[in-house]
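User: I'm writing a tutorial on reading structure tokens. Could you give me a worked example: one chain, its sequence, then its tokens, then a sentence or two explaining what the tokens reveal?
Assistant: Sure. Here is the example chain.
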Amino acid sequence: MKRIVASFLMMLAAATLAAQQKRPITFDDLIGMIRISDPQISPDGKSVVFVGTRHDKKANSSSSALYRVPVGGGPVEQLTTAPKANNNPRWMPDGSSLVFISTRDGESQVWSMPASGGEAKKLSVLSTGASGLVLSANGKFVAFTSDVYPDCPTDDCNKQREEERSANKVKAKVFDKLPYRIWNTWKDGKRSHVFVMPTAGGPARDVTPGDYDTPPIDLGGRWDYDFSPDGKELAFTRNTDPNIAISTNNDIFTVPVEGGMVKRMTENPANDSQPLYSPNGAYLAYRKMERPGFEADRRQLVLIDRKTGRHTSLTADFDYSVDDVTWAPDSKSLYITADDKGNKAVFRVWVSEKKIVPILTGGYYGSVRVTPDGSTLIFTKETINQPAEIYRSDADGRNVRRLTGMNDSIVSALDMNPKEDYWFKGAGGKDVHGWIVRPPGFRSGKKYPLVYLVHGGPQGQWGDQFHYRWSAQMFASRGYVVLMVNPRGSTGYGQAFTDEISRDWGGKVYEDLMAGLDAALAKFPFIDGTRVAAAGASYGGYMMNWMAGSMTRFTCLVSHDGVFNPWSMYGTTEELWFPEWEFGGTPYQNPELYDRWSPLKKAAHFKTPVLVIHGQLDYRVDVSEGFQLFTALQRQGVKSKMLYFPDEGHWVMKPANAELWYQMVLDWIDEHTKPE
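And here are its predicted structure tokens:
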């Protein structure tokens, strides 16, 4: 017995020492992690090919490679070593080779290679490039998208037009309709079209010609075109409304692969997206919203019976919004993912019974795939303290097992804590969900400053997710408790909860956030309520601006790409349907709401120090919003600083820029919450 006790004490001491030897995460750790995506199961069900993306801080760029791991478990094998991007892998039906997208020779094209690895062969040579690869079930065709001039009938025409435009010394832009730019790029008269090409070789053919975008410029799905199982038909998503800047009306269409008339499959005036044929060819599944002009309406899963043309919603009574969709091989059920109270959960939907069963909950799941025999699920899983890896489980979600540990060498050295959930009463007595993350090396009895993160969207959620742009672990690494709340407007708590932010941007959501802070201070006595900072981006940036004019509770704020003046934001954003829904029309039609929820109107009350961040290429929330905010802070004599990125859009994507972002944000918070 003494030996047993001694052995136990030694093990406990060793575990304690190991925990003490772990250290906080650094930016080099974060940027050095391999980001895993797009698992694809081999036709024999024995192995999974996936994409691993690495970021190089010194080169200020990223590259990706294809890897393979056995479904039954085993070592991970790297299949590609060519530089730049190698992604979007798809297995040929006989399992002997893979087709994928690569930029290895400078342009994005379709390539093929033996499944065991080896020399790759270029399949496409389109001058405008290729992306978004889809393979027909019979392996005869690939489909992909390319940005082309819609009036150009040939690739030579597109090539000549691009060369003339590049050589022209005049860089002026002329446009006569909306939208003229999207996210971080100018349209320049181009449209995204779907091309189909034989895998055996031959020219790529545009199967969605015309002055339309396929996929649509916004509100599409994770994919927006799919081959029928016999390879004879292609379904795709397109918006044909005259002014797509004010329209969310994407619809589903089909077209014969060999050429022919385009057929409209949906007449819904709201958003339809993500068409996916059943393996037996009987159904075409898609996601449907019901309210035109609203980007965050509940997405239902709908089936079209291809014989009768009947549309049937399988999730009419499901109060979550359907995200990704995957068919089971026997076509009797589908697997879907959906936001679920701070998680991304997996549900199984049965076709005949319309029964919905939770399969995987508690965590952040994605990229669900099913083995050909239907017995096993392959998926990615991540948590707030564990980056995504490939996992497997039984078809019912049991016997979960991790297949990859691509980041174990980094993660094993880091002290990263899981989230701790709590619930509280928000505006009107509504139950609201939040959580904290403790700092590394946490010691009871010590008081810690707090960083309060507010998510964007506004219809989105903080999830149990290893976020790279807004990493809770990076904020915690400097000795902060991190607080994250899902207030009114968040997804994963029912559609009514999501709806309650629209036309009320500074109302109930603001009350929820303040109540969440009060509740956290009451529940977690180790938080120092006198040293509290807040930070957010997009809508979260708006909320920083709103808070700055509403109270002086925070020691400092970080406002990234936030709306400051709703009037000017309306005139500079590219998706006009968004502010028109959120503020009840145009500023000219409904000025009262644009004024009521304007941080500009509260600028005279600014007192809290603010770090303002914005990118020149942000066309969703124009950079002028950041400049206006900074000017107002300076004229009010408020301590402020602006971090301006001439080469970034709505997100900071380049590794060197991301390092500067984290450094300046964390230094700013340190300066105001950790006085000398």
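What the tokens reveal: Residues 33-119 form one domain. The first strand starts at residue 35 and ends at 41.
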